[in-house]
Amino acid sequence: MLFQTFRGEQAAASGPSATAWAAASVGVLGARVRMVLLDAGRGFVELLHNSLALIGFVIALMLILAATRADLRDAGEQRLAQWLQERVQSRAGMNVEPDAIDRATAALVKSLPKDQAAVAVWLATKYRVAPEPVAALVVEAHDIARETKLDAHLILAIAAVESGFNPFAQSPVGAQGLMQVMTGVHADKYLHFGGKLAAFDPVTNLRVGVKVLQECIQRAGSVEAGLKYYVGAALHDGDGGYSAKVFAEQARLREVARGRSVPTITAQAAPAAPLSAADRALAEMGALRSVSSHSESAAPAASPAPSQGPEPRQALQDPVSLNKL
User: Is 177 buried (19+), middle (13-18) or exposed (0-12) by CB count in 10 A?
Assistant: First the structure.
């Protein structure tokens, strides 16, 4: 009984002081936690500030170096472009080439003048090709015509008769491309465009073909006679109706440009005229290179008399022709 009374008195005496001590301890602990958190926050802010300052310093240094070192700038740009292209390829799942459109020979038809657009659509319909590439060739033909004083419709008519606007066409005797130029004979003209493979670029082939046509006209004295040289029939009595076909197509294109309704007829390749043994030998030996420089002053050697003139794109070869050998 006495022991219980003593414990009760002790508990009564110590109760308030223990509570106060616990409260004080909690207060001190809370203050210390707050101090630690504040110190940590200040440290983080200071670290972040220093890091940003360091990053800014590095960026400023890189900009200074890029401004003074063109090689470093170019290397950085190339690396960035490569990284971006790799990202695009990864997402596309194939090799991509953003500049590939620069190689395309095409133009929007609606961007052309009304007369040129009409011609482009008519040619595309007749020869069953896409209007956009033809539109680009129509524009190019008009640009060349202004430079050469030739008729743009004549240029387009030759391309139509020669290849049907197939830039990869090739005849058995080696005439290639849109204008069916003899690449081997006129390799020197293609040097200005990077080499003989440029024959399959339609714009290049168009320019080279017109240059050959100019030489033929200058040499023959007229457009009609120049077409005879162009098709490779300089030593023959006729040209197999080649110039007539070209002039007929030219007339149709003029009517289309004027807004007239001209029916389209599906283009068909003319049957090939067989090469004679002599002509085939000349084609294989490339006789033009050794004879053409003397053909202006020397009379042409006797050639087999043709029964019929050569057909377009399959012309009989002779040493006087500037193109079809």
Answer: buried
Looking at residue 45, its pLDDT comes to 80
Radius of gyration of the chain (CA): 42
User: What whole-number distance in Å separates Cα of residue 165 and Cα of residue 258?
Assistant: 22
Please report the DSSP string for 36-50 in residue order: HHHHHHHHHHHHHHH
Residue 178 tokens read as: 């849109």
Question: What are 161-198's pLDDT values in tens digits?
Answer: 999 999 999 999 999 999 999 999 999 999 999 999 99
Annotate 96-138 with DSSP letters as a single string. --GGGGGG-----GGGS-HHHHHHHHHHHHHHT--HHHHHHHH
Alpha helices, DSSP H, located in 175-233: 187-190, 202-220, 223-230
* DSSP-assigned letters across all residues of 271-302: PPPPPPHHHHHHHHHTHHHHHGGGTTTSPPPP
Q: Which residue in this structure is represented by tokens 């002509």? A: 279
Q: What is the pLDDT of residues 200-237, one digit of tens each?
A: 999 999 999 999 999 999 999 999 999 999 999 988 98
Predicted local confidence at residue 14, as pLDDT: 54
What does the block give as tokens for 161? 């008769």
For 25, the token pair is 């301890």
Contact assessment for residue 208 and residue 282, using Cβ atoms and an 8 Å cutoff:
no
The least confident of 4-8, 40-44, 137-141, 155-159 is: 4-8
Place of tokens 């008009």: 142
Give yes or no for a contact between 188 and 216, defined as CB atoms under 8 angstroms apart: no
| Residue 196 token pair | 């003989």
Cα 269 to Cα 9, 141, 169: the distances in Å are 127, 23, 11
Q: Exposed, middle or buried: residue 310 (CB in 10 Å: 0-12, 13-18, 19+)?
A: buried
- With residues binned 3-state (H G I as helix, E B as strand, rest as coil), the percentages for the chain, rounded to 5, are 65, 0, 30
